[in-house]
Amino acid sequence: DGTLLAFTGSNDGFVSVWYDQSGNGNNATQVTAFNQPKLVSSGVVIEQNSKPTLFFNPVTIDTFAFNSTLSLGTTHSLFMTHYTTRNISVILGNTSPVANMNNDSTKFTYNASGVFGQSAAGAWMLGQQYIHSVTRGGSLAVNVWSNGNTITMPWLSSNASFTPSTIGGRSSSVLPYGGNIQEMIIYPTDETSNQLAIETDINTHYTIY
User: Fold this and answer.
1) What is the DSSP letter of 61?
2) Does residue 87 contact residue 118 with C-beta atoms inside 8 Å?
């Protein structure tokens, strides 16, 4: 609405708090200025597909930490909108990953303990925007979508709960994310039946695919 640029002027603008919109108050924060994602560059709002976005710089290792670890259990759903510029990086992480799930063709990784990202170089195509969705109904069965297309994951090694603690890396310095993140929706419920509707709403707003 103009307030942001009135505040930054021709300078850069960085984000110290990504506010939880659910009403639960579990904000994601970064108190160290050097590690804060950028929202304004030289007086211009950073955009992806003509919509504002946060830029995470893997060089400065930009990360957010939730006020408290999200203990979602084995039933949960994730919807994330992002544009990747760095190989082998984690969007949503935890310091102690277990229960890796990999897809050999896309190198996509979902770790039940709280890591959502790439497992090898070239995992996600660099320079392409994605909506990645994951739903899990309390068992080893997990559903994963990439821009509306189902990804078949070969295995999940344990029935661990999902406990993410950081946005933009596995931890404050491990596998930092590089690129833009616009939206992150986390449910403590299985939203498989609503996945298409949720993803359609996201795509209508951001025009990703």
Assistant:
1) T
2) yes
In the structure encoding, which two tokens stand for residue 40, read together?
A: 């304004």
Would you say 62 and 168 are in contact if contact means Cβ atoms under 8 Å apart?
Answer: yes
Write the burial class of residue 28 (CB in 10 Å: 0-12 exposed, 13-18 middle, 19+ buried). buried
pTM, entire model:
0.88
Phi, psi (rounded to 5 degrees) for 147: 50, 45
Q: Which pair of tokens denotes residue 138?
A: 């309390």
Q: Return d(Cα 18, Cα 166) in angstroms, integer.
A: 11
Q: What is the pLDDT of residues 8-26, one digit of tens each?
A: 999 999 999 999 999 888 9
Residue 171: φ, ψ to 5°:
-150, -160
Q: Are 151 and 108 in contact (CB under 8 A)?
A: yes
Q: State phi, psi for 137 to the nearest 5 degrees.
A: -105, 35
Looking at residue 95, what is its pLDDT?
A: 65
Is 76 within 8 Å of 124 (Cβ atoms)? no
